[in-house]
Write a structure and sequence with these properties.
2 domains, alpha/beta, four-stranded mixed sheet, 2,3-Dihydroxybiphenyl 1,2-Dioxygenase, domain 1, 3 helices, Signal recognition particle alu RNA binding heterodimer, srp9/1
């Protein structure tokens, strides 16, 4: 089994698409006006307008109501990403810090309030744990 994608449901698709285009540096693919995808080497980040929710069954997802998931991107230089994104991000949860498990990390909220973590393994143990992964 391979993780194919993570999907965010939003009431403002265009706002989130623009935000994640700036964060990832990747242009979104828009196969439908209510859906966008960021196809990355390791996974796809999908964003669907709340109008798409009924296709999966009523009440299956609510826009801007995530309190349990962190969307994580592995980057080369966390501190450089922090400097680049500082003007774009309205809510920083954590400035650059090295976590007990060996990753350097920044944590912020996207415009819908979803948590986003940019991280890089920096300790020998963390680098080993991520060897062979994209």
């Amino acid at each position: 089994m391979n993780l194919a994608s993570v999907r965010i449901i939003t009431d403002d698709l265009d706002r989130l698409v623009v935000f994640y285009e700036k964060v990832t540096g990747v242009s979104a693919k828009r196969p439908a006006p209510v859906f966008a995808e960021f196809v990355l080497p390791s996974c796809t980040l999908a964003i669907g307008h709340s109008q798409t929710v009924h296709l999966f069954g009523a009440g299956s997802a609510r826009a801007a109501d995530n309190h349990t998931v962190i969307i994580e991107f592995r980057v080369h230089d966390v501190d450089a990403e922090y400097a680049r994104l500082k003007p774009l991000v309205d809510e920083w949860v954590q400035e650059p810090a090295t976590m007990p498990w060996g990753n350097r990390s920044i944590l912020f909220r996207d415009p819908d309030g979803n948590l986003v973590n940019l991280f890089a393994p920096v300790t020998e143990e963390a680098l080993e744990r991520f060897s062979g992964r994209l």
